[in-house]
Every structure is written in structure tokens, then in C-alpha cells.
Amino acid sequence: MKNNRIEACLKKANSLPLTPGVYIMKNREGEIIYIGKAKKLRNRVSQYFARFESHTGKTRRMVENVYDFEYILTTSELEALTLECSQIKQHRPKYNILLKDDKGFCFIRLSREQYPRFTVVYHKRDDGAEYFGPYMSAGAARQTLELASKLFLLPTCTRKLEYKKRSERPCLNYFIKQCCAPCTGRVKPETYAESVRAALAFIGGGMKKAVDEMTARMKEYSDAMEYEKAAQLRDKIAAVNRVWQRQGVVSDDCREHDVFTLTSDGLTQCVCVLNVRDGRVKLKESSFFDCDETESGPELLTSFVCEYYGEHEIPPVVALATEPEDFTLLRDWLSAERGKRVSLRCKGRGELPKTARICLDNAEEALVQYSVRRGGRKKTKAAEELKGYLGISGELTRIEAFDISHTGGKTTVGAMVVFENGAPKKSDYRRFRVSVSGGDDYAATAEVISRRLAHLGEKGFERPDVILLDGGSQHVAAISALFAEKGVDIPLFGMVKDNKHSLRGLVAPEGEIDIGKTTRAFRLVYAVSEEVHRFAISYHHAARSAELKTSQLTVIDGVGEARAKALLKVFGSIDGVRSASVEELAAVKGMSRPAAENVKKFFAAIPAEE
């Protein structure tokens, strides 16, 4: 696309210096719609106007609305990043990553009255109350407040609270020891204030800070011989410790850190943040971005981290499951913002905390749940778009994809994944052990598809609207012949890969179908392709590992494949078999005592691995 305004902006961009700086895009009304930073201003800004057709949908819409731009030169890229973050925070441009939904950030509010109450609100007001946060989701704020209320017996109702008023009958929370029942008029304001103080320490600093403060006050009461007050604090400390122990220690070597992970289903990207304090998970938050509305991959992650720490405290360690756009720059910016050195870890650059795996699992689960909550609105658009490319006239609700995995023609397995309304339906995934050997992928695929068709219409095997194969035109031709033989009429396409084994497009019996890589349809097919490949590979690795373990035992006299599998099933591993006694080995179904003695002699001759 070319018009006079874009050509004028391109001419202006080509005159910019090759120095670091910040650029500010404005629309016709002079409103700021996008702010970015660049290591070389001329190269970065000119890309927007010179390569319009290659941009994502969001970038194309932004460029279409640019009437003019300004820029600010900086002495370094780090200074540019710092300036960019402050400008985004100040102006909140429409096309930048903004980490809030339409309602905004959430806060926990503590009112100013004789019996203060905690509530969750969306806006700070100048009303003399205390505010804690911000929290990126109302769920996270309510979860924190709910736990604090239960631990410190604070009311969650709207009853009038007044000391020495006419007594009311307390509600159920009092009898199950989740409220101190100030509504009865028998709780002194100073006693209630003690609980509020402890809750404030918990909300502001976590369980350890709350316990430390309560322990210090308990000692003061004990020294002053106020044993009743000391006993009340002792009980509160015990309650907090019980919850603390149930949470479990998740990190011993890295007790203060945040973890960021990014995952995508091709249509929506999810960034999950895990806050770990005192070695325990304190908070988990997830944010979602439409793929055609935001940057993707490392660029999104860098923008997200910068925006996130504009509102949150930076810990000494920050871990990213994906390498950011510029590792050194982001690390230096985090250290500058914190005022102390920040250890930035990512895959390939330092050991990730074990919470990274937890965070990634949560991101994947959150993305699935988000897709369900959205009711498939975005997915329906992708399916409608894909129907047009495939020439399908009916509904496109259920997509099934198949892939084959093996090692040199051995341990051949097949995998089937199902996407319904654009989201993975893992309950319908299926795995196949394939009898075909020698690396004949066409025959292996035909065997898997034949077994799948044998259950067509059964529960979990509903008729698909389209079948996708991990392969090219020859795969499609082979399975098309199978469909013709069995009288099956289901649209069939192959997912073609490039020389880097990344999805290039789809192929039909008539030839290859060109699907633009910036379309929703392509992102949906890409998500399907990646998921079926992952599922097939993981099953193959598991099957291969089991075979290797079995083969280690079958070399023993008297132990065949059946006995080897029986031993592994009972003892769980090779080490378990090694440590078992002759009597325990002989007791396994199918084993004999001579075979058990041979097993013991075999392992006695082989030293255990250190």
C-alpha cells in the first residue's frame, strides 16, 4: 500500500540519523498512537513505511493511522529504552502493549474508620484510604484478600461494626473460625487493629514479614506480662505457618525471583508471571494478547517486562523462559531501574529456576481456559478464514491432525490431536503403536488413519470436519487412495514444511495452497502443526525409553520381553529391579526362581552407576 502520507513519512524517516533514540507516532489529530525505541532510528522507523505489506495486522493498522512522527535522540540504547518506558507510562498509546484490561489495574483498599475494612477496587481515590497493588487481575487481588481475611479472622460482610452496640448473632464464619465477629460489639477496636496490622504486613510483604512482625509483638506482650494478647498472636502465627507449610518450598537456591513465560496457540499469546518470595510462590498472573494485535515472541516479552516493572518492584533475579529481543539491554535496564544488580536468566544464559517449568505449565493451562472463556469468537474467525482457503462449504469445527515419529525406522508411533473451535481438545488426543517398520512413513500413516476410521462416530472419535497430515503431496495422495477405497468423504490436506522444518502452508491433491503467514488461518494451522509434532515426539521418546529399558533386561538368560516388561511394571525402573531380592523377583507374575537368580547374578557383575 502506498499513499502520499506514507511516502512523506518514508522520506522523513530516511533523513533520520543512525543513532539511538525514541520515535513517537501521531495520528491526524496529533494524538500519540505508538512509541518505540531504536538502536538506529533511520533503519527502524523507515521499515514501517517501506515494508508495509510484510507487517502484522496490528502494525498495518497503526501505520495507516500515522500522519506524522517525532523523535528524540539519546546517547545510548539503554537511555532510549528508559525514555520509551517512561513515555509509554505517561501517554498510554493505543498501539503499545498495555498490561491492563478495560477495567484497569486492581487495588486492595483499606478504609479509614474505627473498624477498617479491606475491599478490592479498580481505581485509587483521594479519600484518605490506604491502597495496595496494583494487581494485574481482580482474581489475584481477591485471592490475596481472601487468604488474609481467613488467616487474621477479618470480616468480609457488610454488617455495621461498632464496639459495645446491641449484640447481633454472628454468622457462620465465626463458628468455623474464619472471623472474629466484630459485628457482635464485643471485639475491642485495639484488638481488631492488631489483626488489621498483621493483615497489612501479610498483604504488603507476604507471610514471612507477617510472621516476623507478629513474633516481635508477641515477645513484647510476653515481656509486659500481657499473656492473653501474646497467646492470641501465637495462635495467628500458628495459622499462618500451617498455610505456609501447605504451600511448600518451591525454590531453595533462588528464593526471591520472578519468572516470565510466553506461549501461543497461533491466535492468542499468553504471558504468565510467577512471583516467588521467601522461596514460595506468592502470586501468579496471566495476560493475553491477540496475535494480530501485538508483537510476537521476544519483542512482546521485552515490551511486557518493561511495562510490568513500571508498576511492580523488581526482585534480584528475573527469569525468562524465552530469550528476549536484546538480553544485555534488558538486563542493564532492570539493574538501572532497581538501583542494584539484577541477575537476568533465560534459556541458554544461566540456569533457570525450577519454577520456570511451573510457570510454563500454568501459561499453557491459562491459554486453554482463556480460549474456552472467549467462546471461540477469535477461533471462529480463524476457522471461517481457513474455510475460504480450503474451499470447504460446511462447518469447520473439528480439526484432526496426524503425525508419525520414529528413530531410523524403529519404534514407530503415530499421534492424533484434535482442535475444536480452534482450541486443543486434549481429551480426544490419541496415540498409536505402529506395526510398520523400516521408516515407511506413508504405510505408517495409512495404518494410523485406517485404525482411526474404524472408530468413526464413536465417543471421542466424532467425525472430523477436516483432516491434516504432517507431510506433503505424496502423503495426501496415499491417504486419498485409502479414503476412496473405504468410501470416506472427509476433506484432507497436508501440512508442508520448509527446509527449517517450519510450516510453509497446506497442500491439497490439486496442489499447494498459499496461506499468508500473517493471517488468522495460518496461525491456526501453525498451532495445529506444532501441537501434533510435539505430541508425536513426546510419545516416541517415552516409547523409545521403555524399549531401551526392556532391552537391557532381555539380554539376561531366562528373561524375554514379557518378563522384562513385567519386572519394570512391578519395580518401576532398572534400579528398582537391581535392588530387588531373589524372592521379590521370583514373586513377579511369569518369573521363575532360576530366572530371578540370573537377574541378580547379572547385576552383581555390573557395578551400579554413581
> What is the CATH topology of the largest domain?
Nucleotidyltransferase, domain 5
Name the helicity range. Answer: 40-55%
Count of DSSP helices? 19
In the CATH hierarchy, the architecture of the largest domain is: 2-Layer Sandwich
Largest sheet: 8 strands, mixed
Instruction: Specify Rg, calculated over alpha carbons.
Output: 31 Å
Approximately how much beta-strand content do the residues carry? Answer: 15-25%
CATH class identity of the largest domain? Alpha Beta
The average pLDDT score comes to 81
Give the beta-strand count: 19
3D shape:
globular
Question: Would you kindly provide a written description of the structure presented here, covering whatever features stand out?
Answer:
By secondary structure, the protein is of the alpha+beta class. It has five domains: about 5-90, GIY-YIG endonuclease; about 105-245, no CATH class; about 255-375, Nucleotidyltransferase, domain 5 (2-Layer Sandwich); about 375-545, UvrC, RNAse H endonuclease domain (Nucleotidyltransferase, domain 5); about 555-605, DNA polymerase, domain 1 (Orthogonal Bundle), CATH 1.10.150. Helices cover about 45% and strands about 20% of the residues. It is built from 19 helices and 19 strands. The chain has helices at about 5-15, 40-50, 55-65, 75-90, 140-150, 170-175, 190-225, 225-245, 300-310, 325-340, 355-375, 375-390, 440-455, 475-485, 520-555, 560-570, 575-580, 580-585, 595-605, and strands at about 20-25, 30-40, 70-75, 105-110, 120, 130-135, 255-265, 270-275, 280-290, 315-320, 345, 400-405, 410-420, 425, 430-435, 465-470, 490-495, 505-510, 510-515. Strands 12, 13, 14, 15, 16, 17, 18 and 19 form an eight-stranded mixed beta sheet that branches. Strands 9-8-7-10-11 form a five-stranded mixed beta sheet, with helices on both faces. It has a three-stranded antiparallel beta sheet with strand order 2-1-3. Helix 4 (about 75-90) crosses helix 10 (about 325-340), helix 12 crosses helix 15 and helix 15 (about 520-555) packs across helix 16 (about 560-570). The longest helix is centred in the middle third of the chain and has 35 residues, at about 190-225. The protein is globular, with a radius of gyration of 31 Å. Residues about 245-250 have low confidence and may be disordered.
